[in-house]
Amino acid sequence: MQTILIVDDEPNIVEGLATQLQQNYGDRAIVFRAYSGQHALSILKNNPVDVILSDICMPDLDGLALLEETESLWPRAHFVFLSGFDDFQYIHRASKSPLYRGYLLKMEGDEVVLKKVDQEIRLCEEEAKAELEQEQMQRQYEQMQAFLQRAALESVLRGGSTWQDVQERFEGFLPQLNARAPVIMVLGKEQKGAQPGTLSTLLQIDRLLSLRLKRFRFVSLLPEEGTLVWLLQSQERRDADASYLYALFESIQQRLAEAEGAYVSFVVSRELMLSKLAEKYGRMRRISALSAFGRDHLVMADEATCAEQMLGGKSEAVGEQIRFSRLLQQLDQALHNGPEEEARTLLAQEFAARKTPLRPEQLLTLLGLVLQIGREVEMNWPGEKTVRALMDELLRDGALSRERLEAPLEALCAQLCRLRDLRNAHDAQAMVSRINRCIEDSVESYDLSLTGLARMIGFNPSYLSRFYRINTGRKLSEQIDAAKLNHAKALLSTGELIKNVAERTGFASPSAFILFFKRNTGMTPGQFCEQAAGER
After folding, report:
1. 21-42 pLDDT per residue, tens
2. Buried b (16+ CB within 10 A) or exposed e, 187-215
3. In Å, how far are 2, 54, 57, 340 from 82, measured between CA atoms?
4. Which end of the chain is more exposed for a tag (fewer CB within 10 A), N or C?
5. Is 209:236 a contact under the CB 8 Å cutoff?
6. What is the pTM of this model?
C-alpha cells in the first residue's frame, strides 16, 4: 500500500485532489490531507509517506522548507511541487534535492496532476522491489557482520551473562553504538511458520534500515527463535525519535507482508541505557504477548502507550525470572487458545513447585494478565470485580496467601475459557465494535485518521483498513467521516458556531470543514442550521 500526502493552504484544492485519488486507488493507497506546511510536517513526523504533492508558497512553512525537512525523515520519498505560477527560481533550488520529482502548475488541470501522481506511485513500487532484491544480494555479507557483538548482547538479553561481564569490551566491540548513550529497543515477533524464516527476515529488515536511516546507528539481534531485536541510537537526539521509529517500522512491516509474505509484529520502547537491556527485554516481551490479537494479526505497539495499560506501574520487575515469564506466556496461550483444564493445571503446577511465594509485583502482573484477557473476551467481564478486589487486598496487605489466591484464580481462568469458547465466533464483530467505539470516543481528535486509529487499536494501518472492509463491507474512512458528520450535526443543532464545530471535529480550518460538510450533505453548515431551525 502506497501513501500520498497533499499539501496546500487552499482546502478546496486539497479536498478535490484527495477525493479523486481515493476514487482512483481505493484501498491500495492512504491519502493524507494537510492544509499548511506545519500541518504536513506533523504528519510526516509520524507517518511514512511515498509521494508528496505540495504547494510552494504557504504562510507558516513553505514548500522548499518542507522539502528539506522531508529529506531527513523519509529519504526515499518522491516530492512534487504544485503551484499557481511558474517560478524558475523555485525550480532551480528544489532540483538540488534528491527527493525532487517535478513541478506542476495548478492551471494544468487535475488530469495532469493525477497522471503525475500515478507515475510516481509506479516508480515507488519499482524502487521498493529493487530494495528487496538488493537486500538479497547482500545477505551473505550481512550474515558475517558483527557476529561476536551480537552473541554477547543476545546472551545479556537471555540472562546468560550480565552487562558487567561484557562492559569492558563494548567500547571497541560495538563500533555502531556509544555504550554511554541511550538507545531505543525495537522487539519483533515473527508468526509461527512464517516464511522466509527469522534470520532472513532479520537481514531483510537490516538492509531496509541501512537504506532508510540517516541519523541512526543500529545493532540487530536474534536472542531466541522467532524473536528479533534492534538497538537503535540517534546521532542527533530528538524528542520524537521513538515516534519516528514507530512509523518507520510500521512501513517496513507492511512492505514485508505484501512483498515477501513475512509477518512480523513490533513493539517500540522508550529510551534506555544499555545496562538495562535484560529488564527492558523482559518487559517488551510481556507487552508483545499481551497485545490484542498478537498471535494472528500484524501488531504495532509502543511501550509508552502499552506499558501502563497492559502491565501497570507496579510491574517494573517483569522479566527478572525466566521461569515466571514462561508461566505468563503459557498461561496467556492457554487462556486464548487452550482447553479450560490446561490453565488450571498450569496454575496448580506453579503453586505446587514454588519454594517461595510469588512477590507482590509478580502477583500484580499475573492478575493484570487475567484482567487484560478478561477485557478482551468481554468488555464488562463479571470477573473484573474479583480481580480488582484481589489487587486491592494485595496493595493494602503487601501479600496474598496461596489459599486466598489459588482457588479464585483457577475459577477466574475457567470462567474466561468458557466465555472465550462461547464468543469465538464473534471475535471479528467484537473488534469492529471496538473500532467503532474508538472512532466515537476520538471524534474530536485532530489525529482521527486511518493511521491515528490504527495506533489506538494496535494494528498496521493497511491491515486495519482491509480487516474493517472485509467484515463490514464499508471503508474505514467512510465510518470516520460519518462519525465526524454526525458529531458536527449535533453541535450545529445546539447553536455552536461553525468555527468551533470545525475545530471540535478535527479540521484544520473552517473552510476545510465547510467543504467536507457540503460534500457529504449537499448543503453548507449554515444552510443546515437554517433548515434545522425551520423544523423546530
Report:
1. 888 888 788 899 999 899 999 9
2. bbbbbeebeeebebbbbbbbbbbeebbee
3. 20, 6, 10, 62
4. C
5. no
6. 0.48
